[in-house]
């Protein structure tokens, strides 16, 4: 298991203390609520999407530093991205954390690469992925990011224990 100094990188500490986009936006068209029953975390992700682009993204959460930092970094990374780009980034992060195929270049993950050490602490993987699961459930389906919310199967959340 990774030591605390490796797990709590400066980026994770900064985003957990100074959360970005921690509010309920006015006029959010899509919203999803997710819970992590193992540790009691709860997150609501709100998105405003137009022409297939995430125009606004925010969250409300009660959770640990990893969940808070992940949600904060997610909102920063995905505003202005297309729904397709967001889904790809979710897949890359999930693969990276669960020890599967890594992105060809960790730079693809940007600040999210700070979660690399969490791979050595598998009980924290669900905390990091919780906001991303909520995001996928909040994002609309279809090329226009139209009117129906997408309800995919939950992301794999790493080993429990």
Pick out its properties.
Sufe protein. Chain: A; alpha+beta; 34% helix; 3-stranded antiparallel beta sheet; 161 residues; 3 strands
List the helices and strands and how they pair.
Elements: H1 4-7, H2 10-17, E1 30-36, E2 41-50, E3 53-62, H3 65-78, H4 83-97, H5 125-138
Antiparallel strand pairs: 1-2, 2-3
Helix pairs in contact: 2-3, 3-5, 4-5
* Total count of domains: 1
| The first-level CATH class name | Alpha Beta
Biggest sheet record? 3 strands, antiparallel
Task: Name the shape in a single word.
Answer: globular
The DSSP helix count reads 5
Quick take:
The protein has 161 residues and is of the alpha+beta class.
Walk me through what this model shows:
It contains five helices and three strands; from the N terminus they run ααβββααα. The protein is an alpha+beta fold. Helices cover 34% and strands 17% of the residues. A three-stranded antiparallel beta sheet has the order 1-2-3. It has one domain: Sufe protein. Chain: A (Alpha-Beta Complex). The longest helix has 15 residues, at 83-97. α2 crosses α3 and α3 crosses α5. Mean pLDDT is 78; it is low at 143-161. It is globular and about 45 Å long.
